[in-house]
Write a structure and sequence with these properties.
This protein is an alpha/beta fold. It folds into two domains: about 190 residues, Aldehyde Dehydrogenase, Chain A, domain 1 (3-Layer(aba) Sandwich); about 140 residues, Aldehyde Dehydrogenase, Chain A, domain 2 (3-Layer(aba) Sandwich). It is about 40% helix and about 15% strand. It contains twelve helices and 14 strands. It has a seven-stranded mixed β-sheet, sandwiched between helices. Strands 5-4-3-6-7 form a five-stranded parallel β-sheet, with helices on both faces. It has a two-stranded antiparallel sheet with strand order 1-2. Strand 10 and strand 11 form a beta hairpin. Helix 8 packs across helix 9. It is globular, with a radius of gyration of 21 Å. It starts with a helix and ends with a helix.
Length: about 350
């Protein structure tokens, strides 16, 4: 199968996914709608029933992002620098162990393996076990050449040549031990942070709210910590974050808020602020609990940038204002295809397997 055909197949998938939105199904004249429209709609409901964190708005947000990413112009721009051949010199079977913290979190690895011409053997997370199998069926129906390229396994992985695994710091130690003899990408815990100056506009702070609350803060690209100057006015931030007050309607999220608030109060944590649905706590750690954002003061931009550089292996991305060197507020959960998890170039890894 040529590279052009592989790109065309994912472009077709993107067109199919673009029909699903919060406002309802916006049908396009696509030949596979007859076979896949209703099953995919049922799948969205089933995913929410299986994993309460996957509410429809979060699923639609993920589908919209991927439908935009799978446009031919985006795929070409992403892949052109690699000069991929129609097929790699040696086609390998890549075992991919996927996380399940947010909807379709493993799709980038799925796309990377298949578009590079290799075979994929997938171990799904029980938290996100519906969408990849349906997408695999879609691709196999749209292009039969994918039929021997995609395998989803329920038990142990076997007969693979390289591994891509995503997990926590604890599971990554197991991955390192078990898969260390294979070419591998093994991802660890990372968190994202934001740098505030106090000069942000209300719109920028609302956009920061998207970076914090999208997917209920469960993604590695969600902002879990903010850096603020010593004289920072938290009232401005709380005023902007009030736009996200509908989080109080999600019982699971609010259970986490109540629990973490109680824990912090019992431990007599100092310098804690809250507005009824999010806790701000001064803390040097990067990984904050659900419904909590850690903050830390900084005294100079130079020292802060040095601190961020020293901890770059623990940080997924840094967001800030338009005049900063960081990702703009509101874009943390809208990565491009070239924004690789943990900064590891997956396509380059796959291209150079021998």
């Amino acid at each position: 199968m040529s590279l052009a055909k592989r790109i065309e197949s994912f472009e077709t998938l993107g067109l199919f996914l673009s029909q699903f939105s919060e406002s309802g199904f916006e049908e396009r004249n696509l030949p596979l709608n007859a076979d896949f429209k209703e099953p995919f709609e049922m799948l969205i409901n089933r995913a929410q029933e299986t994993n309460p964190w996957f509410d429809k708005n979060q699923i639609y947000f993920s589908l919209e992002n991927w439908s935009n990413a799978l446009k031919k112009s985006s795929l070409d721009k992403w892949l052109d620098p690699y000069h991929l051949e129609d097929n790699p010199a040696v086609i390998r079977t890549i075992a991919v162990i996927m996380a399940g913290n947010i909807p379709l979190v493993g799709f980038h690895d799925f796309l990377s393996v298949l578009v590079s011409g290799h075979r994929i053997q997938i171990k799904l997370s029980s938290n996100d076990c519906h969408f990849i199998p349906m997408i695999a069926r879609f691709l196999k129906t749209q292009n039969p050449d994918f039929k021997d390229k995609i395998e989803i396994v329920d038990k142990e992985l076997s007969e693979y040549d390289a591994v891509i695994a995503t997990g926590s710091d604890n599971t990554s130690r197991y991955f390192d031990y078990y898969f260390g003899k294979y070419p591998n990408i093994i991802r660890h815990n990372r968190n994202s942070v934001a740098v505030l100056t106090g000069n942000e506009s209300p719109e920028e702070l609302v956009n920061l709210g998207d970076d914090i609350f999208q997917y209920f803060g469960l993604g590695c690209r969600n902002v879990s910590k903010i850096y603020v100057p010593r004289d920072y006015d938290f009232d401005k931030l709380f005023k902007a974050l009030y736009d996200f007050k509908d989080l109080t309607n999600n019982q699971r999220y609010m259970n986490n808020f109540d629990y973490n608030k109680a824990v912090f109060l019992m431990s007599q944590s100092k310098n804690m602020l809250e507005n009824g649905f999010v806790l701000l706590k001064e803390d040097r750690n990067f990984s904050s609990p659900i419904a909590t954002v850690f903050y830390e003061f900084y005294d100079s931009q130079e020292k802060l940038e040095e601190h961020l550089d020293q901890n770059k292996d623990r940080i997924q991305c840094v967001v800030g204002g338009e005049t900063s060197p960081f990702i703009n507020f509101g874009l943390a959960q809208k990565p491009g295809l070239e924004d690789y998890a943990d900064g590891i170039d997956t396509i380059n890894f796959l291209k150079n397997l021998n």
